[in-house]
Design a protein that fits this description.
Elements: H1 19-45, H2 47-50, H3 53-56, H4 70-76, H5 79-86, H6 88-123, H7 134-140, H8 144-150, H9 156-193, E1 202-206, H10 215-224, E2 230-238, H11 240-264, E3 266-269, E4 278-281, H12 298-303, E5 313-315, E6 322-324, H13 325-346, E7 350-359, H14 362-369, E8 381-384, H15 400-420, H16 422-430, H17 434-440, H18 442-450, H19 452-473, H20 475-482, H21 490-515, H22 519-527, H23 532-542, H24 544-564, H25 566-578, H26 585-592, E9 596-597, H27 600-616, H28 622-646, E10 647-648, H29 657-682, H30 686-692, H31 695-709, H32 719-723, H33 737-740, H34 774-783, H35 789-794, H36 802-805, E11 812-816, E12 819-827, E13 832-840
Parallel strand pairs: 9-10
Antiparallel strand pairs: 1-7, 1-8, 2-7, 3-4, 4-11, 5-6, 11-12, 12-13
Domain CSC1/OSCA1-like cytosolic: 200-395
Subcellular location: Membrane
Domain CSC1/OSCA1-like 7TM region: 407-679
Length: 847
């Protein structure tokens, strides 16, 4: 047992006045305001950086160029519009922030009007925060009397109030959690029930036996099972050979694009105040008229203008002769195109025991995806197909054994990674405690004790910023590892990244940081695991100021930084300024005219952690509750702006993110209840602690209840919703964030025309007039509206390997919006002929 005498003399820098809180509040507020005003300034000076999506998607409202006028337009964007222009997954992501606003607004009102005044009357303090390390040493030595001696016991009346509010806040969270769950289910069923896209009608069948590796045989077999009619069967093959050729071709095209850009120079019109951004060669090849034979290759033809600059030459190998680089790569490209055409026509690809099966109806696909096709294990396994753009084609050829091994290896690496990081995280948590610093570096610890300002910086501010940096940087490593698992769906990869990142953040940056702050914590927990609850309660109290600082920093500073997209600005500076000579029209278009990817797996976990921390502190600290409310309000509008105007979430997981949110919120509730249980036990209020115990199994029951009754509706589409095109999903008027925040035009409001929130039908599914009442048909026409962005992305897609239908375009030598200038080469018997054509690229925003 560790004795108190083994520790340094008692000194607790966390027993601080509100000075640190005020300093952090003022600093974060001023810095955040400066960053926000900077964003407001550059937003309309460089609109392509911060609102590129309206240039690509005409359905998105343009923001005014006034300094702050855009805020009103952003606030007025409804939930229906978010679904239409950002997608269902983006809407579900914002629903989490909306739920956080509602929960913490309710809790903050209760805390400010009831809990804090009662706490002040009974204890003389508005917030119950750390009052010293005496309680900590009492817990470590297992002596409740020692703890009581060093810390004044709380009045019984106050502990009763804490117990009551534990129940009230638990009920509040579950009420809004289920309310939001019901709303998401109804919205999801309305959206998906009204769609008839190829994705909604397609399933994936894996582990197909050799006897059925034929499209007609597989189609006949499925139809004989009675699960519905099959429209199309697309068998999957191993296209590795074709992909290798296209990878080599992309390198050649890139070389040619760099040659054109460096030889002729580029005229960039991206930051200028023009309607359509462009990047073209300084010599407009399309408009030039040459009195030359049309068979003369373009580079040589324009050399007739007596350009001073010589045509580029170089050695392809280290000791090879110098060659004309234009001629060499033109010939290489033509030869590569011939090889690709031959391979496509030959079709000599190894079959894979998987297939995409498109059914005649959505209901048939839903039933087939949940059916058991074969009495044999590991044969004819079915599931709903991801959208064509979401398919990881390179992973389809991996066997089940290979995927299983990959997933487990990645899991083990992440677990080992998390365990190894316990050591640096422990030292980081030691910065909060001068006593811990003194054990490691006695001279520096003594110096901190004597100098209050430096002590405040080292123990109060520095850990917060280091914590934030770790929180931002390390999830990218987990994201890289998660992409190696071999998952077929990119949407599933995104969800997997979310789960793994949360596991790492919650374990390392919360549990380890909170519970294992000192060596004595390790020894105490290893010697007696029953001390987990008391230690959690004590550590939570001792870290209250740290978490206030963290939430203030994340909310008041990091959200404006996200709005400013500082990381993207740094990348643009690197590419546009430092690597200017390497850029091509294609790279400029990718850099400025394609929206950035919104990666939920890297973003959501840290907000879930802040949500959990705020819940855990809800009874202890009203300041943290208020900070959490501000955090989620700012987060809602920052991400609303990004998802509508500057970023896209391309993966279509149809709202499957919500079960992850639900389960993690319930995990936070378990720790909240465990923390309150430990707090009451430390105060020797065992009766009140016993009253908190039933909340733990209640939360477990809530999880089981959700999994049984709600989870299927978040993975599948109800047949009744399909039958009625989503109209059977009960209209939900609870989606009124605008009214909750004082706006008549908030998210989820009904459109001004009075139509239902989301009811979509394409003309092909319209009821026949001969079988429909005229009044009903009229009502249907009124309800009809544009398709969502998810439908638009899938409108012209199919489950054919993309490289089988990829156009063999030459290098890009210019772009103007969606119009691309492409060089095409043709080989004749004696020479290479080339010309330039202008064509439109795909309408997909992130193309």
């Amino acid at each position: 047992m560790l004795e108190i005498s083994d520790e340094p003399p008692l000194f607790d820098p966390r027993r601080q006045t509100q000075t640190l809180f005020k300093v952090q509040l003022y600093f974060c507020s001023i810095l955040g305001l400066v960053i926000f005003l900077t964003f407001c300034l550059v937003r309309y000076k460089f609109p392509l950086l911060y609102s590129v999506r309206p240039y690509r998607n005409k359905m998105i409202r343009r923001l005014p160029k006034s300094f702050l006028g855009w805020l009103k337009v952003l606030h007025s964007i409804s939930g229906d519009e978010i679904i239409q222009v950002a997608g269902l997954d983006a809407y579900v992501f914002l629903c989490f922030f909306r739920m956080g606003i509602r929960i913490f607004f309710t809790m903050t009102v209760a805390g400010l009007l009831v809990l804090s005044p009662v706490r002040y009357l009974l204890t003389g303090k508005f917030d119950k925060e750390m009052t010293g390390l005496q309680l900590f040493y009492g817990v470590m030595t297992g002596s409740a009397k020692t703890a009581a001696k060093h810390d004044d016991s709380e009045p019984t009346g106050y502990l009763v109030v804490c117990t009551i509010f534990t129940y009230i806040f638990t009920a509040t969270v579950f009420f809004f959690l289920f309310k939001e769950t019901l709303h998401i289910i109804k919205t999801r069923q309305r959206c998906l029930g009204s769609q008839r896209s190829v994705t909604d009608r397609t399933i994936v069948i894996s582990h197909i036996p050799d006897s059925l590796k034929n499209e007609e045989a597989l189609k006949s077999h499925i139809e004989t099972l009675g699960v519905g009619n099959v429209e199309k069967v697309t068998l999957v093959y191993d296209y590795t050979k074709l992909r290798i050729l296209f990878d080599r071709r992309a390198e050649i095209v890139h070389k040619l694009e760099q040659l054109y850009s460096n030889y002729y120079g580029l005229e960039i019109r991206i930051f200028k105040d023009v309607e359509t951004p462009s990047a073209k060669l300084k010599l407009d090849l399309l408009s030039q008229e040459l009195d030359l034979d049309a068979s003369v290759p373009l580079p040589k033809a324009y050399d007739s203008k007596k350009r001073e600059k010589k045509r580029p030459t170089g050695r392809i190998t280290a000791f090879g002769p110098k060659v004309d680089l234009f001629d060499y790569y033109c010939q290489e490209l033509i030869q590569m195109d011939q090889n690709i055409k031959v391979l496509r026509e030959k079709g000599d690809f190894k079959p894979i025991p998987s297939a995409f099966v498109t059914m005649d109806s959505v209901s048939d696909a839903q039933m087939a995806a949940q059916a058991v096709f074969s009495p044999k294990a590991f044969q004819l396994i079915t599931c709903l197909a991801p959208a064509p753009l979401d398919v990881n084609w390179d992973n389809l050829h991996l066997s089940s054994k290979s995927v299983f091994i990959r997933k487990n290896i990645v899991e083990l690496i992440i677990i080992a990674f998390s365990i190894l990081l316990i050591i640096p995280i422990r030292y980081l948590s030691s910065l909060l405690n001068v006593n811990a610093i003194k054990r490691i570096w006695p001279e520096f610890g003594d110096y901190l004790i004597k100098h209050e300002i430096l002590r405040t910086i080292v123990t109060g501010i520095l850990p917060t910023y280091l914590f934030t940096l770790i929180n931002i940087a390390l999830p990218y490593v987990i994201s890289f590892l998660s992409n190696l698992q071999g998952l077929v769906s990119k949407g599933d990869v995104d969800l997997s990244i979310t789960r793994k990142n949360f596991m790492y953040i919650f374990f390392n940056l919360f549990l380890v940081f909170t519970l294992f702050g000192t060596l004595s914590s390790y020894k105490a927990l290893l010697s007696d695991t029953t001390k987990i609850a008391p230690l959690l309660a004590t550590s939570i109290k001792s870290l209250s100021l740290f978490y206030i600082d963290l939430i203030l920093l994340q909310g008041l500073v990091m959200f404006p930084v996200k709005l400013l997209q500082a990381g993207d600005l740094a990348y643009i500076f690197w590419e546009y300024v430092l690597r200017h000579s390497w850029q091509t029209p294609r790279s400029y278009r990718d850099l400025f005219y394609k929206p950035a990817m919104f990666e939920v797996g890297l973003i959501l976990p840290q907000h879930l952690l802040i949500f959990i921390i705020t819940i855990i502190y809800s009874v202890i600290s009203t300041k943290i509750l208020t900070s959490g409310l501000v955090y989620f309000v700012l987060g809602y509008y920052v991400y609303k702006y990004q998802l509508v105007y500057s970023m896209v979430h391309p993966y279509h997981s149809t709202g499957k993110l919500w079960p992850i949110v639900f389960h993690r919120v319930c995990l936070g509730m378990l720790f909240f209840q465990l923390q309150m249980l430990g707090t009451l036990a430390l105060e020797q209020s065992f009766v009140l602690a016993a009253l908190v115990v039933p909340l733990l199994p209640t939360t477990v029951v809530v999880i089981l209840f959700f999994n049984r009754n709600y989870l299927p509706l978040l993975f599948y589409i109800a047949l009744d919703a399909i039958k009625t095109s989503g109209e059977s999903a009960e209209t939900d008027d609870s989606d009124e964030l605008g009214s909750f925040l004082g706006s008549p035009d908030g998210a989820g409001r009904k459109p001004r025309s009075g139509r239902k929130s989301v009811v979509m039908r394409t003309p092909s599914e319209s009821p026949s007039p001969s079988h429909t009442d005229p009044e009903a048909l009229s009502a249907h026409v009124l309800r009809k509206r544009r398709s969502t962005i998810d439908e638009a992305r899938e409108a012209c897609q199919s489950y054919i390997y993309p490289l089988l239908k990829e156009q063999l375009d030459g290098p890009w030598v210019g772009f103007e919006g969606d119009d691309i200038d492409v060089v095409r080469y043709y080989a004749t018997e004696s020479q290479i002929v080339s010309d330039i054509v202008r064509q439109k690229v795909s309408s997909i925003e992130y193309d």
